Amino acid sequence: MVFDDTEYNRWLKQAKNTLEGANKDLESSQFNWACFKAHQATEFALKAILYGFGNTPFGHSLRNLGLKLSQIKNIDISEIYDCILLLDRHYIPTRYADSFSEGAPFEYYTEKDAIEAIECAKKIMKFIEEMRK
Q1: Which of the 8 DSSP states describes residue 75?
Q2: Most exposed of 1, 41, 117, 121 (fewest Cβ within 10 Å)?
Q3: Residue-wise DSSP of 12-74
Q4: Rounded CA gap, 94 and 91, in Å?
């Protein structure tokens, strides 16, 4: 099967743009949004490589997307798996007030959380880009 560079590049371009947004949110102390966008950037990057390999990824679970990647082409995702799990935890509670028993989501996220999330997104994106070299 021929790799679909067009879809890969389209999704990876969106992933990089979203990661830039996460960094801007970090700079403006919008830590919950930085964490969410780190998740989104990773989702787009994982979907980029899956589309490239001719798959049609579905859903928002990074764990499921990562496992799908590991199943095709027998790709070892162990070096990014912990980051995948960490970022998956930022999909819903970063945005919805009813994720916590009281307070608003932004009150539960710190600069440390945002930095860690962004670093994980960068690590995963680098892993994906290395597959294309």
Answers
A1: -
A2: 1
A3: HHHHHHHHHHHHHHHHTT-HHHHHHHHHHHHHHHHHHHHHHTT----SS-HHHHHHHHHHSTT
A4: 6
Question: How far is residue 35 from each of residues 49, 53, 93, measured CA to CA in Å?
Answer: 22, 28, 10
> Per the confidence metrics, is the pTM higher than 0.90?
yes
Q: What's the number of CA atoms in the CB half-sphere (13 Å) around residue 72?
A: 18
List, in order of start, the domains of the chain with CATH numbers. 5-131 (1.20.120.330)
Q: What is the pLDDT of residue 113?
A: 98
**Per-residue pLDDT tens over the stretch 59-118:** 999 999 999 999 988 899 999 999 999 999 999 999 999 999 999 999 999 999 999 999
pLDDT at res. 74: 87
